[in-house]
Amino acid sequence: MTASLHEIFESRSVAVVGASKDPTKAGHQVVQTLLAAGYLGEVYPVNRNENEILGLPCYSSITEIKEPLDLIVISLPGKAVITVMEEAEQRGDVKGVVVLSAGFAETAIPENIELQRQLVEIAQLAGIRVFGPNCIGIMNPDLKLITGFHPGISFVPGNLGYVTQSGALGGSLLTLALSQPKPLGFARFGHVGNMCDVSNMELIEEYGNDPKIEVILVYLEGVKDGREFIRVAGQVTKNKPVLVLKVGRTEIGSKAALSHTGTLAGTDAVYSGAFKQCGVVRANTMHDLIAGAKAISMLPKPHGNRVCIFTEAGGMGVISMDEVEAGGVLELAPMSQETCEKLTALLPPMAMVCKPNGYVDLTAAAMAKEFGDAMRLVLSDPNVDMVVLNSVPPTFLPAMDVAQAIVPAIKEFGKPVAACFTVSQAMAETRRFLEENGIPTFDAPDDAVRALAILIQTTFSVSHPLADVPAAHHPILDRAVLEARHLLEPESLDFLSDNGIAVMPHVLARTREEAQRAAMEMNSPVVLKIVSPQVIHKSDIGGVKINLQGNEAVGQGYDQLVNDVKRTIVAADIHGVLVVPMAQPGTEWIIGMMRDPQFGPTIMFGMGGVFVELYKDVSFRIAPFDEEVALDMIKETKGYRVLQGMRGEKQKDIASLAELLVQVSQLAARFPQIKEVDLNPIRVYENGYSVLDARILLDA
């Protein structure tokens, strides 16, 4: 029977295979660290050339250990690891293995990849779980169990669970948390290394079921199965916050992509969309990750996102205000007129009160009592959900006096307050006092604002599960796949129409006369667009003629269009010209789809037209999704303000745009033969929309 991860974290005996007397060797350091930590279980050094290491009897192999053996830490070269695994299989009682050694599949060398395959095969036959290779393994402060050797680790029990793909970075996060004025303790730490067996997703799921863990911190380099990540994380975030530091933020989307979506869909943007979809909150730096965990661990849950900036130093207040505006998560609290008047009466004449509303600069003239009374006034205002307190108390006002004055007020109202009392050693005692009283402190004012933003996001995040949609077929797609080609635009429009998406009237004209006849029947100015598999971006080569009216203009437009394209692309296979009515003016948007290597069908939304790649005002989500997710995508873009109506413009039909996003997401999930989709531009009106151009690329 395969051991559970819980059993491995609770291991009562550890064999260190490759233990050494040489202090520079990893095998020595693991034994030394276990002993120094005071591990509550048994430690068995294994080295056939030694009789004793660090005062412990040494064994020539794990088969000589007569007592029960739960966990093995291996610090040996690749082939020797396989031998140890075979011995572990023979024993029958080993639950877990941590492979410290590198030199396996991460090298991309065929023989090393084969060694990792053999390792996994033996582990699966024996029911043994493997962390690594190339990892420092696990920590459990309750047992003082540690299988690695990161410096500066102290076993302070707490409610944090760490999942990391980097041992050094994970250990650094841990020590950063432990170095806070009141150390942030932890319940579990797991480094997954190569993830030949135990994965980051499995650890997240394990922590989600562990009652000792209340906040999950993840250092993420990538996932093997993005849709499984969304499933697992989406379940966990229903009950516990999951904070992720995801690295690799530069765009590495396919340069060969033929659609705007493929060009814009850097892997990082897709990850960000997936995180939002499953309720995961992203931190962009190590400090923000720990600051967010600190706020969640120490503060009550807020009722809303309205924050008062309560500052004793103008510069710090301005930094806080800038971060509130730039972050887009918090908003300044609209305090009542009564609160503003009482604060004005209480504070020194030079104080800046409610200018703007939600901002209070007490100035250095305020004394401790005024700090406490003003804090009480601010927190009593029902329009204030939380407070950022900035202070650099002058030499004539001891910082501890200020802290002792504000703590009773903060405890009275039970609202989140994040404090910045600068980073100097002079504030160390004050910061400890505040944190021991449940008020997290931060090194800089913008750190405090971002910590509260993370608290808000985890409090109000909602996960949206991905529905299972059965694969489907369509004759237009099947024919194109059989012919190993992409859809022509008329086929794309017909396919969209067949699947319930409203498209403009359109006619494929193969002759000048057919184009003239189609234009006459449409009884309006028309647009002519070249139809050729060799012409992807038509406007780039003059493959579009707009606002043509009358037989002569349409006929000349047809001839000129065909001749221009033939001159520009000599080998172009021209199937004809698409005739569509001239659309009414309107704001232009794009909806795209691509198949991400990790997450599968992925939808993009943003400002469209010819400048889409310049503005890059886009959002991503994983298909399929519902209207709530679609609305989140729309609101996430800067262009949302345009849709709401700006400078006298009326609000556009956001509901129909959201419905279109949902429809495209359903198509992406139902038809796996679709590789990419570009609906660009889409013009959105006060009522309805028009899809002006449609491109569908297939895995032909």
How much is the radius of gyration in Å?
31 Å
Q: Which homologous superfamily in CATH is the superfamily of the largest domain?
A: NAD(P)-binding Rossmann-like Domain
CATH architecture of the largest domain: 3-Layer(aba) Sandwich
CATH topology of the largest domain: Rossmann fold
Task: Let me know the average pLDDT.
Answer: 92
Shape: flat
Number of helices: 24
Please, how many domains? Answer: 4
DSSP strand (E) fraction?
A: 15-25%
First-residue to last-residue Cα separation: 45 Å
Helicity, in percent?
Answer: 25-40%
User: Can you count the beta strands?
Assistant: 31
Question: How are the strands ordered across the major sheet?
Answer: 9-8-11-10-12-13-14
Low-confidence stretches: 252-265
| Main sheet specs | 7 strands, mixed
Descriptive overview:
The protein is flat, with a radius of gyration of 31 Å. Strand 20, helix 15 and strand 21 (about 440) form a beta-alpha-beta unit. The chain contains 24 helices and 31 strands. The chain folds into 4 domains: about 5-250, Rossmann fold, CATH 3.40.50; about 290-460, 3-Layer(aba) Sandwich (Rossmann fold), CATH 3.40.50.261; about 505-580, ATP-grasp fold, A domain (Dna Ligase, domain 1), CATH 3.30.1490; about 585-700, ATP-grasp fold, B domain (D-amino Acid Aminotransferase, Chain A, domain 1, 2-Layer Sandwich). The chain has about 700 residues and is of the alpha/beta class. Helix 12 (about 335-345) packs antiparallel against helix 13 (about 370-380). The relative contact order is 0.07. Mean pLDDT is about 90; it is low at about 250-265. The protein has a 7-stranded mixed sheet, sandwiched between helices. Strands 15, 16, 17, 18, 19, 20 and 21 form a 7-stranded mixed sheet that branches. Strands 26, 27, 28, 29, 30 and 31 form a 6-stranded antiparallel sheet that branches.
